[in-house]
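ARCHIVE CARD
CATEGORY: sequence design from structure
SOURCE FIELD: tokenized fold
FIELD CONTENT:
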């Protein structure tokens, strides 16, 4: 299995563990839920689940279609953008939720959200081009 694919899977399970830790923290500290809910939700639903799907998809779909991955470079760029985006969102979100006015963290959150979005578009392009011949 390609190294970058192994890293997609490693990051997926890391986000899973972190995501449920935030879930348990919210149960133990219900007063803090407002700060941590989007972090919990996106570590699980933008981290754990998609990273697992990216890793498994990049490993299996080229084999199903008998083709190589359309762009291994795009797959690598997507990895860094997606992880930087999610980590940036997870770190800045509680600060944005806690702030009373626009702060540096708003800019970090918006930039990170944009990175996440671009990484998803890169995945869509790469996987559609890879399976084109099915
Ligand atoms: C040990 C495991 C988990 C615990 C203890 C936990 C705990 C929580 C808590 C306390 C909330 C906030 C509920 C509220 O007061 O509004 C929540 C919301 C949520 N959790 Fe989890 N969670 C866990 C795992 C997961 C997983 C694995 C996922 C997704 C794959 C997930 C998805 C969500 C979503 C989408 C919400 C938001 C629901 C809404 O919009 O109201 N959770 N979770
Ligand atoms: C580029 C990627 C994404 C961005 C920028 C994004 C952004 C946001 C924002 C701004 C909110 C509102 C948070 C608030 O109430 O302050 C939100 C909520 C939510 N998002 Fe996302 N999202 C993304 C991807 C996803 C994905 C892939 C899923 C699920 C598969 C998802 C599930 C949810 C859910 C369930 C909520 C409601 C959480 C709650 O109860 O407060 N998001 N998202």
């Amino acid at each position: 299995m390609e190294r970058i694919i192994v890293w997609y899977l490693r990051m997926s399970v890391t986000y899973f563990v972190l995501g449920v830790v935030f879930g348990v923290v919210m149960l133990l500290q219900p007063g803090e839920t407002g700060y941590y809910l989007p972090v919990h939700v996106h570590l699980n639903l933008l981290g754990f689940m998609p990273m697992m799907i990216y890793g498994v998809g990049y490993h299996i779909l080229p084999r199903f279609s008998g083709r190589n991955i359309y762009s291994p470079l795009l797959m690598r760029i997507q990895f860094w953008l997606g992880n930087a985006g999610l980590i940036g969102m997870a770190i800045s979100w509680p600060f944005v939720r806690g702030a009373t006015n626009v702060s540096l963290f708003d800019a970090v959150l918006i930039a990170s959200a944009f990175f996440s979005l671009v990484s998803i578009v890169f995945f869509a392009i790469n996987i559609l081009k890879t399976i084109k011949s099915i």
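CARD ANNOTATION: The first helix runs from residue 3 to 28. The mean pLDDT is 94.
SHELF: design records, drawer C
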